[in-house]
Write a structure and sequence with these properties.
Layout lengths: L2 E5 L2 E4 L4 H9 L4 E4 L12 H11 L2 E4 L9 H13 L4 E4 L4 H10 L6 H10 L8 H5 L11 E8 L3 H13 L5 E4 L4 E3 L4 H5 L9 E3 H4 L5 E3 L3 E5 L4 E4 L4 E9 L4 E2 L7 H4 L5 E2 L7 H10 L3 E7 L9 H15 L6 E7 L11 H10 L2 E5 L1 E7 L4 E6 L7 E6 L2 E3 L4 E2 L2 H4 L25 E3 L12 H19 L6 E2 L4 E8 L2 E7 L21 H17 L12 E2 L4
Parallel strand pairs: 2-5, 3-4, 3-5, 6-7, 6-13, 7-10, 13-24, 15-22, 16-17, 16-22, 17-18
Antiparallel strand pairs: 1-2, 8-9, 11-12, 12-13, 14-23, 19-20, 20-21, 25-28, 26-27
Helix pairs in contact: 1-2, 3-4, 7-15
Organism: Ascidiaceihabitans donghaensis
GO molecular function: FAD binding; hydrolase activity; quinone binding; sulfide:quinone oxidoreductase activity
Cofactor: FAD
Length: about 550
């Protein structure tokens, strides 16, 4: 007998026998629900036989038979009622456990988020994709009709989504395109580092979403609940169904603030800040500009994260300010990096190390922030050096800049589109889904081994647009993405180390070395970051003007 735990109060099993009941009792289970009709299998004990033994053992047992593949709304109602009334924990069983897991999922639909239900059943070994629309509909069977249908549906209206929509419209204006995103505002997130460094004003990094959605593109202001790729459908919150001929998935990633114990309770006060939120980046500058002595800590969680150099940018701009105000000798700077190197592409490390030495930054590798107490000004790190036991250390701070752990959004990680790690599973060259040929993905949410940066999305959007148009015309993919990403490392106010690289860490400079040598600090690169890239983002990338982003033609081997 193999019991599958779905929650603390509910477990599922395949067909049980009379002898199994004693072991079930010993496990602390108090109630059993049978979801398998009598006579379904020749070697199957009847419910009555099992119920007599259960009664002798002091187990409550109920019979809610469901034929294979035929879970009706009435069955769900009866199951939910028994689940509520029976002593806990409850074990439900059928031939394999799938019907019981399905009934539980539908019964929880009104009380639990869809992603949590799918995650719990998936962890127990049961795939609920066949009933995801019913779960989204509160556990009842919806009408199987689309509320809307489009040539191309784009999930996510961030940098990737708007750029992809604009690039598609530029190539084929007659396409019926919809972008799905519940947000009212669109942010230029690369600018938040500069806000935290006192260079940009926060309000200059935001626009209304409505002002950026391309003309002729439909904006569906809603959140996505689930995907049904076999039916070419996206399920929205409220169980509205949007059908597509082709789908682009680019909702970005999830900032998992809750993964650090105590962090959410103290963000934006007690000296705890982060440039990863629009409302917090100004607080970073408030702390930096007001600090004249003490300990400043900067953190970096395990990869993957948005722009691997972003946590360092906050350090260097802060340290540069303290240098200019002649207070740096009174400030102890520490960088706690869960990784084992300063930067993943070795060609840029010498220049960065020069600034680490200049600012006397204490490097702490393999050190991952796990808990924080803002009022007490204390943080705890798990130090996991190779071949040594994990050690938890306590560090006091006066200011701490936190880079939050990051992962795929819940509705992506539990979907049929995800790989084993929860990211959208694409071919790294064409950005087409490996299983579903009418689905593409770009930006931070897909699993190609590239840096997750806005510059990467700028290069990816034309590739996706080219390949979708080719698919519409009945042709094979025509363009490929080479892994390009860019990370302008702001090592001081007025100078940047312009890291540009592709798959495998191959350097991919956009400019000749005599103009900008990306491995060395450059004033021209700072000018690019401060003056040129913001208007390129707003007026070119998001408008389908592919400046320095022409797609590379697919090489047939």
């Amino acid at each position: 007998m193999n019991l599958h735990k779905i929650s603390d109060q509910f477990l599922v099993a395949a067909q049980i026998s009379e002898t199994d009941l004693a072991a079930i009792k010993e496990r602390g289970i108090k109630s059993v629900i049978c979801n398998r009709p009598d006579g379904e299998g020749a070697d199957q004990p009847t419910f009555e036989e099992l119920a007599k033994t259960a009664e002798k053992l002091g187990l409550d047992m109920r019979y809610i038979p469901v034929s294979g593949g035929m879970v009706h709304d009435a069955d769900t109602h009866d199951f939910a009622a028994e689940l509520k009334a029976l002593p806990k924990p409850v074990l439900a069983y059928c031939r394999t456990g799938t019907r019981s897991a399905t009934l539980w999922s539908l019964a929880q639909a009104k009380d639990m988020p869809l992603a949590d239900i799918l995650s719990a059943t998936k962890a127990a070994g049961y795939d609920m994709k066949g009933v995801v629309r019913r779960i989204a509909n509160g556990g009842t069977t919806p009408a199987d009709q689309a509320d809307a249908s489009y040539d191309v549906v784009i999930v996510g209206a961030g940098a990737s989504g708007i750029a992809a929509a604009s690039s598609l419209k530029a190539r084929k204006p007659e396409l019926e395109i919809a972008v799905i995103d519940p947000a009212d505002a669109h942010y230029y997130q690369p600018g938040w580092t500069m806000v935290g460094g006192g260079v940009f004003a926060a309000q200059d990094t935001v626009r209304t979403m409505g002002s950026l959605v391309p003309k002729g593109v439909h904006w569906l202001k809603s959140a996505v609940a689930a995907f049904e790729p076999e039916k070419d459908a996206v399920i929205l919150d409220g169980c509205r169904v949007v059908k597509y001929k082709r789908l682009v998935v680019c909702p970005g990633l999830k900032l998992d603030w809750h993964r650090v114990e105590g962090l959410v309770d103290t963000l934006g006060r007690n000296g705890v800040t982060s440039n990863y939120r629009y409302d917090l980046a100004p607080y970073t500058w408030e702390l930096v500009s007001g600090m004249t002595s003490g300990r400043a800590i900067f953190t970096q969680p395990p990869m993957p994260i948005k722009c691997a150099g972003a946590p360092q940018k906050a350090i260097y701009l802060s340290a540069d300010h303290w240098t200019r105000t002649e207070t740096i000798n009174n400030i102890e700077i520490e960088f706690h990096n869960a990784g084992g190197v300063l930067f993943g592409v070795k060609d840029y490390v010498p220049a960065l190390q020069t600034y680490v030495d200049k600012y006397r930054i204490g490097l702490n590798f393999f050190s991952n922030l796990v808990a924080i107490d803002g009022p007490a000004k204390k943080a705890w790190f798990d130090v996991a050096k190779p071949d040594t036991p994990v050690e938890r250390i306590e560090v006091e701070f006066d200011m701490i800049h936190v880079t939050p752990p990051q992962c795929a959004p819940d509705f992506i990680s539990v979907s049929p589109l995800a790989d084993g790690a929860g990211w959208v599973d694409v071919d790294q060259a064409t950005l087409r889904h490996k299983t579903h040929e009418n689905i593409w993905s770009l930006g931070d949410v897909m699993n190609a081994p590239n840096a997750k940066t806005a510059a990467a999305a700028r290069k990816q959007a034309p590739v996706v647009a080219d390949n979708i148009i080719a698919d519409i015309d009945g042709r094979a993919p025509v363009s490929q993405y080479d892994g390009y990403g860019s990370c302008p490392l702001t090592v001081e106010r007025g100078k940047i180390v312009l890291a540009e690289f592709g798959y495998g860490g191959t350097l991919q400079p956009s400019f000749p070395n005599w103009l900008i040598d990306g491995t060395k600090p450059s004033r021209l690169a700072w000018l690019l970051k401060e003056k040129i890239l913001p208007p390129v983002y707003w007026k070119a990338m998001l408008k389908g003007r592919e400046w320095m982003a022409a797609p590379e033609k697919l090489t047939v081997r």
